[in-house]
Design a protein that fits this description.
Layout: H1 38-47, H2 50-55, H3 62-72, E1 77-79, E2 82-84, H4 93-120, H5 124-131, H6 137-150, H7 155-180, E3 182-184, E4 191-199, E5 202-211, H8 212-247
Antiparallel strand pairs: 1-2, 3-4, 4-5
Helix pairs in contact: 1-3, 4-5, 4-6, 4-8, 6-7, 7-8
């Protein structure tokens, strides 16, 4: 029997259903994959999951589709039966974009933090001990609205923060996906892919292509929110200062 690689390293698949004669697959095997090659091991996993084929409607049979994709694709491997995608190269320009998204969002939250500090009217270092425990734009806006009530500020000061909060949900989700989802190697210079893993607000599974323009648009929208938050901070602190002067 001829082989391109030594017998001990060759795939030991004995199936007649994997595109080769039993025992004659010439692909390299792995001990972690039961001495099978990546393609045969992926097909074996698919064969071992009949319960999903029987109980799940074909249009929703995501596990079967995923295993088939793993078996047929040659540019990523398997780790314990799970797809192991290759990350972007270290110097890929998308990492710079993602870093800017994270930093600009932190700036937005800082603007809201300083609004809270001003309305509390105490040492910034002490109030920062509180705001550092608040996660996200929504809870910060709620804290600001509550402080406005405590300071007896007009509804016209509070309502814009409620609007900012409601408008931020979609933007926050886009920021979370850009920062938290795994970036995957992609040949196109202005596009990359991310692996979506059934996030609560984005119930997709698998690779999703993302263009550079999408990230740049996200950055633009975050800066617009920064400008809104900055103006609202000025309005709230001006209103608070005016209310204090009335009491003097």
């Amino acid at each position: 029997m001829n082989s391109l690689i030594p017998e001990i390293e060759r795939c030991q698949c004995q199936s007649a259903l994997h595109g080769h004669v039993p025992g004659e697959c010439i692909s390299k095997a792995s001990a972690d994959q039961e001495n099978l090659c990546i393609a045969c091991y992926g097909k074996l996993l698919s064969e071992r999951a009949p319960v999903f084929n029987q109980e799940v409607p074909p249009r929703d049979n995501r596990l079967h589709k995923t295993v088939s994709m793993i078996a047929e694709s040659g540019w990523f491997g398997l780790q314990d039966g799970i797809a192991a995608h290759k990350p972007l190269p270290e110097e890929h320009p998308f990492y710079t974009l993602v870093g800017r998204v994270a930093s600009e969002w932190a700036n937005l939250e800082h603007i809201l933090d300083t609004t809270i500090w001003g309305l509390l009217g105490a040492s910034q270092e002490l109030t920062a001990c509180v705001t550092s425990q608040i996660m996200g734009v929504g809870p910060r806006c709620k804290a600001i609205e509550t402080l406005c009530c405590a300071r007896e500020l007009d509804e016209s000061v509070k309502q814009p923060f409620r609007k900012l909060m409601s408008d931020s949900y979609d933007l926050s989700e886009r920021r979370n996906r850009a920062v938290h989802d795994f970036w995957v190697v992609e040949a196109k210079p202005d596009k990359a892919s991310q692996f979506r893993a059934m996030a609560y607000k984005d119930k997709r599974f698998g690779l999703v292509e993302v263009g550079r323009s999408e990230i740049e648009e996200l950055l633009t929208n975050i800066r617009i929110f920064q400008e809104r938050a900055s103006k609202l901070r000025c309005d709230a602190l001006d209103a608070f200062e005016a209310s204090v002067k009335k009491l003097v």
